[in-house]
Amino acid sequence: MLKTDIAIIGAGPAGLNAAISAAAMGAKVLLLDRDDRAGGQLIKQTHKFFGSRELHASLRGIDIASLLLARVREFDNIDFRLGATVLGYYEDGVITAEYRGNFLKIKADRYVIATGASEKILPFPNNDLPGVYGAGAVQTLTNVYGVLPGKRVIMVGSGNIGLIVSYQLLQAGVQVAGIVEAAPGIGGYLVHAAKIRRAGVPIYTSHTIKEAYGDSSVQGAVIWQLDEKWQPLNGTEKDIEADVICIAVGLTPLTELLWQAGCQMKYVPQLGGHVNLRDENLMTSVPGIYVAGDVSGVEEASAAMLEGKLAGLAAAKSLGYSIENYDELWQQAISQLDGLRSGPAGEKIRSGLKMLVR
Ligand SMILES: Cc1cc2nc3c(=O)[nH]c(=O)nc-3n(C[C@H](O)[C@H](O)[C@H](O)COP(=O)(O)OP(=O)(O)OC[C@H]3O[C@@H](n4cnc5c(N)ncnc54)[C@H](O)[C@@H]3O)c2cc1C
Fold first, then answer.
1. In ligand 1, which atom is closest to the CA atom of 41?
2. Beta bridge partners of 220
3. I need a labelling partner for 210 at 20 to 30 A (CA). Which of 18, 170, 282, 328 fits?
């Protein structure tokens, strides 16, 4: 049995920051990620981030991952294992993991779950044809492995992910035949949409996919218009040829471990699906289990980093570790989170979070 003070599951921006802040207080940390690279979603984000300097704005996601990893490597009290998939959480507070062909049993005094989110898929006829991808998968193929998914893409969804991945595909020399959006307006930041429009890509708002077609793989799709009640309008069909359909209709938190641990969960559509109740320290309803990042509500990397910092600090403090400026660090993270979630852009997240306070 491997024993540690704090086990952190997931080494995306949330988990990396949780490890750094807990280790800085002196806690013994075990950081596990199933991937063979640290950084979670950040390693495929080749675009520069918005936000404040403290949260690495104007750096590319992939560079933020390297920066956080270098910081983790400075601590002797962080045991960081890549290629470690956490399989389950058991009643006696033990977790199990598959680690490079070995089966590990781990008992930690505290856990920080930072497993991120997975992509939502969309039901339509022939959505199982080869050539139908999630946008995150396309981004992994192109930006991590240097493999193009095809020659001509239909993007479904005009949130930031749909817009950013479309732009990155254009940069990689792939044609984007159009972006299809069910809502009457574009979902993502207008600065991203403007770049797409300047490249001549049509954005079909109030439209959805009627069906994909193709013999053994995607050859195109029929899209159609939706009325104000989101019902398809017969006679508005358009046929678009493409060899890839890329689905970017949102993410949903990867909460399996939280369910297994018996955390109280609630369905909050604004946060992407079922998420856990939590207190101001991001502790769930199960004492000793904390959350951070997209697993506790789909947001952005900047929010994930701050939540990681908070959860790491609070978990270490609950074990009796201390740091001189704890209150200042904690308050600073809270204020920065409030700042990120302020204004009209943060309204959706604010209303979702209100439903969750324990
Ligand atoms: C295309 C795209 C563009 C984006 N652009 C921006 C942007 O410009 N600015 C911004 O702030 N945010 C952006 N984001 C959002 C941002 O990337 C995420 O909000 C952020 O990565 C969430 O961090 P996280 O640590 O919670 O999860 P993730 O980054 O998803 O990391 C979770 C980690 O957990 C690991 N894991 C999961 N389950 C297990 C398990 N059972 N065992 C072990 N390990 C496990 C995964 O391998 C992964 O490494 C973008 C996202 C996408 C997809």
1. 29
2. 213, 241
3. 170
Residue 57 to residues 54, 224, 301: CA-CA distances in angstroms?
7, 38, 11
> Dihedral of CA 116/258/75/320: which sign?
positive
Residue identified by tokens 């959505």 is: 127
Residue owning the nearest CA to atom 8 of ligand 1 = 49
pTM above 0.90, yes or no: yes
The answer to whether 107 and 2 have CB atoms below 8 angstroms apart is yes
> For ligand 1, is residue 291 a contact (CB within 6 Å)?
no
State which residues of the chain have pLDDT below 50: none
* DSSP state letters, 87-108: EEE-TTSEEEEEETTEEEEEEE
- Does the Cβ of 18 fall within 6 Å of ligand 1? no
The reply to whether ligand 1 has any atom less than 6 angstroms from the CB of 32 is: yes
CA 316-298-223 angle, 5° bins: 165
Cβ atoms of 291 and 311 closer than 8 Å: yes
- pLDDT the model gives residue 157: 97
Residue pointed to by tokens 């049995």? 1
Per-residue pLDDT, 356: 84
Per the listing, tokens 């920065």 go with 336
Tokens matching residue 130: 């080869």
Give the length of the chain: 358
Strands 78-82 and 84-89, sheet pairing: unpaired
Q: How far apart are CA 199 and CA 161, in angstroms?
A: 17
What separation in Å is there between the alpha carbon of 295 and the centre of ligand 1?
A: 9
Mutate to test the pocket of ligand 1, among 34, 41, 58 (most ligand atoms within 8 A of CB): 41
Does residue 9 have its Cβ closer than 6 Å to ligand 1?
yes
Q: What is the pLDDT of residue 189?
A: 87
* Model pLDDT for residues 250-292, shown as the tens digit of each residue: 999 999 999 999 999 999 999 999 999 999 999 999 999 999 9
